[in-house]
From TrEMBL:
The active site is at C55. It comes from Caenimonas sedimenti. The lineage of its organism: Bacteria, Pseudomonadati, Pseudomonadota, Betaproteobacteria, Burkholderiales. It comes from the Bacteria. It is an enzyme of class 1 (oxidoreductase). One of its GO terms (biological process) is hydrogen peroxide catabolic process. The keyword Acetylation does not apply. This is Glutathione-dependent peroxiredoxin.
Amino acid sequence: MIKVGDTLPEATLQEYSEVEGNGCSIGPNPVKVQDAAAGKTIALFALPGAFTPTCSAKHVPGYVEKFDDLKQAGVDEIWCVSVNDAFVMGAWARDQKTGTKVRMLADGSGDFAKATGLTLDLTARGMGVRSNRYSMLVKDGKVATLNVEAPGKFEVSDASTLLAQAKS
């Protein structure tokens, strides 16, 4: 499992972006994790799936709400990573009104989740292998803090916890 001090794994996520004003879209576009994180402070949070209850009601809204506070604490970008395809993540971004506050990044085949060692096997529930719920503060591609949730919990990967860590 990835730990504090480790470099983010080499992986390519996908991002589907709306073009404001004309209803067209851009993407899906590849996002090379190491390149995109270089020289930046990233508030990265991952979750089991788009449109799932805790993820939609608490996890994503918390990061949208704390956007300004995270920016003031030195965070350059907020990333939401989930084992879904880019089209689903784009639709979820519209539903959650993330705008330019949270980058909704698709880990379609779970390559990033597997490379971090933070997978969650939900096969028995018909969802296959997903990402565990966690958050991390990433500085110049290296993990500065890591908050991994226990199964079925939402206690340490929330925006308030990561904000407190960004401020310290």
